[in-house]
Amino acid sequence: xxxxxxxxxxxxxxxxxxxxxxxxxxxxxxxxxxxxxxxxxxxxxxxxxxxxxxxxxxxxxxxxxxxxxxxxxxxxxxxxxxxxxxxxxxxxxxxxxxxxx
Length: 101
What we know:
Elements: E1 5-6, E2 9-18, E3 25-35, E4 56-57, E5 69-76, H1 86-89
Parallel strand pairs: 2-5
Antiparallel strand pairs: 1-4, 2-3
């Protein structure tokens, strides 16, 4: 490839459902969103949504000093446990359940 980029951060979004029908919560979805952050050092870490984006290109330098980070967010969802696969099963024609087993 002519140019290679590195993502040094991931936002992990855990979607959960609460109901009076059961105790506790149920995880009904998970999203992982990669991005690159311009982190100056391991001591100065800002992973907020407003952190400055900085794509790291391997073609710019032979060596890069990178700080790898992740953030975890928990979002309440109205999606019920029984419907959690519907998004994937309806996303393409001829979808096969074997993809998910």
